[in-house]
Design goal:
Blueprint lengths: L3 H7 L2 E6 L5 H14 L6 E4 L5 H17 L4 E6 L5 H13 L4 E5 L18 H11 L3 E6 L10 H14 L2 E6 L3 H13 L6 E5 L5 H11 L5 H7 L5 H21 L4 E5 L5 H10 L7
Parallel strand pairs: 1-2, 1-8, 2-3, 3-4, 4-5, 5-6, 6-7, 7-8
Helix pairs in contact: 4-5, 10-11
């Protein structure tokens, strides 16, 4: 296994993100997806996290399985929403015992299936980063929002907050976006604040128009007018998918040309779109 900070220091990383399955059958399906993506030689894979107990446990199970059963480096997401510091300490100890070396420290949202707001000892993700740093020899990532966090008062405030997080963390991964210029502006604005740590762009190809629009709204990303106009007259789902993969390929090529330190693909637990983009970019496959 490897620390992601070290992987980034050695060169570009190409990585995939999954969410923890809710059922045993879905967990088997995710295992197949990971097996299909393993020949692409990912630098690491990450597994998302919810503050609820069952989701938390499945995140741990998937990350530990990847660590134990594959040659891929795993990263566990961890949120401060709904957590006391003692719980975070216990979770970090369990990851360290399982040989997990990488944590993505996030603010997170309260679980939607819990009627009562769960108490938290944290106000900001930066506070969680501090505890993760003290909790073990982890390589730590944080989230970045190219268009600004939806709860930020301004883009300038968002950049200052991100710069403070990156003062403690090793790297950032962005929420997905659609315009390479938004990413370049983010990196430039961080550099103006004296921050040059790696920021990995997050990529989500539009394979289902309605789904991506909803996810964009939740994450604070604008669904561009030009993309909406391109897709609006398209009724064939296969054509939507073809256009989405074509545009994601162009975005990835533009980002790599602009000097991005890697690419992080939001897979939605499916492998085919990511494999097609890899092929379009001419990225190497390590096995058959």
């Amino acid at each position: 296994m490897a620390r992601i900070a070290d992987l980034l220091a050695d060169g570009r990383t190409f990585s995939f993100e999954f969410f923890p399955p809710k059922t045993d059958a879905a967990q088997l399906s995710l295992g197949r997806t990971i097996a299909e993506l393993e020949p692409l030689g990912p630098s690491f894979v990450s597994v998302t996290y919810g503050a609820g107990g069952s989701t938390r446990q499945r995140t741990h199970e998937v990350v530990a399985w990847v660590r134990r059963e594959t040659a891929i480096t795993p990263m566990a997401h961890l949120t401060c929403a709904g957590h006391r510091r003692v719980e975070i300490a216990e979770i970090l100890a369990s990851y360290q015992a399982a040989g997990i070396e990488n944590i993505l420290a996030l603010g997170g949202d309260q679980p939607q299936d819990q009627a009562e707001v769960q108490p938290s000892d944290y106000d900001y993700a930066a506070e969680l980063v501090e505890d993760v740093r003290q909790g073990g020899p982890f390589s730590i990532g944080v989230a970045a929002h190219p268009e600004g966090h939806p709860r930020s008062t301004s883009r300038e405030a968002d950049r200052r907050h991100l710069a403070a997080k990156l003062g403690l963390a090793d790297f950032a991964i962005t929420q997905f976006f659609f315009d390479a210029g938004d990413y370049v502006r983010l990196v430039d604005e961080l550099a103006q604040l004296g921050v040059t740590k790696p920021v990995i762009p997050g990529i989500m190809p539009v394979t289902n128009k309605g789904q991506v629009v909803r996810m964009a709204e939740l994450s604070g990303a604008a669904f561009p007018v030009w993309l909406a106009e391109r897709l609006e007259p398209v009724t064939d789902p296969d054509e939507v998918r073809r256009i989405g993969i074509e545009l994601a390929t162009t975005l990835c090529a533009d980002l790599l040309e602009a000097g991005a330190p890697g690419l992080h693909f939001y897979t939605l637990n499916r492998s085919s779109a990511t494999r097609e983009i890899y092929a379009n970019l001419g990225l190497p496959v390590t096995a058959g």
